[in-house]
Write a structure and sequence with these properties.
By secondary structure, the protein is an alpha/beta fold. It contains 15 helices and 13 strands. Helix 9 crosses helix 12, helix 10 crosses helix 12 and helix 13 runs antiparallel to helix 15.
């Protein structure tokens, strides 16, 4: 494995700064959300964005897609959407020269580098499941034939946490395929004033692509080479194992959690921490990197029980207490 060099880091920092600047031409504020989106990009993972209507979830994803040289498709998830509307279907064609008829696979919108699954929880589970193989294997199987998807491949999904009428909560297996679950909050007062000034006039900001697919793949390779000490690997494992009622002695976990996080959560924790370290100009993961990504990594992977729901306890509350309870590495992290 080749170590990340200062030259690699400087080159990537310049490209990411240009990407942030382009996104900032359209999106006001939301720096933490943009950071988490870029973390998912560098880690090569998918992202679920949750927020009430009007917080520019869709605009943020479209702006990010416009700022890179990658193909982009949007799928509006509705109750009548079918799996074939996502992955594609076979159509009957005729060779006019010979008169022979044959079936040809017509590729669906999933065949793009960046796929926006808008309001993903508005479609039934059978259609949600059409994304599973693509998200995990970066391929689609139809009629016994497997069609690989182009890399890099990202699924960026949105959902509204408030309105529940006509929605279908994502199954745990589907949620687990998302590297990060990002929550978008309201802007600050100054940001809201800036939004009003920018969006109610004639001038419409445009975004120029600044990163190619090859550069994103190279950045993902660099992220995997970021160093992680044995102490931090052990800390990540302790955090994940502490979420499981049957494997922990922490009282509030046994009291509030029905199902804890799987080993995939540990993998996601380390990968996201590596990407965050690289995003912030570090050549090695720090304890702060792991603690910062713990919330978006565990938010959708902890299943609370009825007692926790009745007491208004959410996964974020449990993660916060776990970070205070689980001992950090005692030795200095280089």
């Amino acid at each position: 494995m080749t170590a990340v060099t200062e030259t690699d880091l400087a080159r990537l920092a310049a490209r990411l700064a240009a990407l942030r600047a382009e996104i900032g031409r359209v999106i006001v504020g939301q720096d933490d959300v943009v950071d988490e989106l870029l973390t998912a990009f560098l880690a090569g993972g998918h992202c679920l964005l949750e927020g009430v209507p009007g917080l520019a979830k869709t605009l943020m994803i479209r702006t990010l897609a416009d700022a890179v040289h990658l193909s982009f498709r949007r799928i509006q998830f509705t109750p009548d959407l079918m799996p074939t509307d996502v992955v594609g279907t076979e159509i009957l064609e005729e060779d006019h020269a010979t008169g022979r008829r044959f079936f040809k696979f017509q590729r669906g919108p999933i065949f793009a580098h960046i796929v926006l699954a808008d309001e993903i929880n508005r479609t039934p589970p059978k259609t949600q499941a059409a994304l599973l193989e693509a998200m995990q294997e970066v391929a689609v199987t139809y009629g016994g034939t497997t069609y690989p998807l182009e890399r890099p491949f990202f699924v960026l999904a949105t959902q509204n946490p408030v309105e529940q009428t006509g929605t279908y909560p994502l199954p745990e297996a589907q949620l687990d395929r998302f590297l990060l679950h990002v929550r978008i909050g309201y802007p600050t007062e100054s940001e809201e004033l800036d939004i009003l000034r920018r969006t109610t006039g004639r001038d419409v900001p445009t975004v120029t692509p600044v990163l190619t697919g090859e550069e994103i793949l190279a950045a993902q390779a660099l992220a995997r080479e970021v160093r992680v000490s044995d102490d931090l690997f052990a800390y990540a494992a302790r955090l994940v194992r502490a979420t499981r009622p049957e494997q922990t002695g922490i009282a509030f976990v046994r009291e509030w959690i029905r199902w804890g996080a799987s080993p995939r959560a540990g993998q996601s924790l380390v990968l996201a921490a590596k990407a965050r370290a690289l995003l912030h100009g570090h050549l090695a993961v720090t304890t702060d990197d792991l603690r910062s990504v713990a919330f978006p990594v565990l938010r959708h992977r902890l299943v609370v029980n009825f007692r926790a729901e009745a007491e208004g306890i959410e996964a974020n509350d449990i993660t916060k207490r776990l970070l205070a309870e689980v001992p950090e590495p005692r030795t200095p992290i280089p």
